[in-house]
Known about the structure:
Order of helices and strands: HHHEEHEEEEHE
Radius of gyration: 16 Å
Strand order of the largest sheet: 6-5-4-3-2-1-7
Largest sheet: 7 strands, antiparallel
Distance between the termini: 29 Å
CATH superfamily: SMI1/KNR4-like
Amino acid sequence: xxxxxxxxxxxPPKEPYEATGSQNWLEVESALKTSLPRDYxxxxxxxxxxxLGELLWVFNPFASDPRLNLLVQVEQILGMWxxxxxxxxxxxxxxxLYPEPDGLLPWGYLDTGGSLYWQTSGLPEEWIVVLNESRGxxxxxxxxxxxxxxxxxxxxxxxxxxLPVRALRGRRNVFVxxxxx
Length: 181
């Protein structure tokens, strides 16, 4: 399981912050009108809210901070894409947006400004990762699950034309819970 490999690279906290909340997974999935990948739910249950590898934030549906809350961010990010499209016509994103078939569903962001999405093709366990560059239309697809992507990124084995190599230089493979920031 890819989460097992990830937790060998980055130790999760002993007591994950906001690993659960007043909502449960069924309520979250009902609100989103889709099931979510098992590895994502396992990641949240293991890590909770926080920064991964001094670089990346995974949205958490149980986060109290709206900037990290999956439900809030899905609405805001997809709403921004839709309003840009409505105002300026066709946007340069080559993918539809969730809930359209094969649409992009946001799940995190990089401190460098890049946005992370699932491409919702097939079953949630088959969803792959799409990275959108910071302040631009370029996207890259990675035939990886979320935890596979995170493992490759933190192992420095992620070939990318968008993510600058310097973004990983000097960064430690640590997880800092939001409660400690």
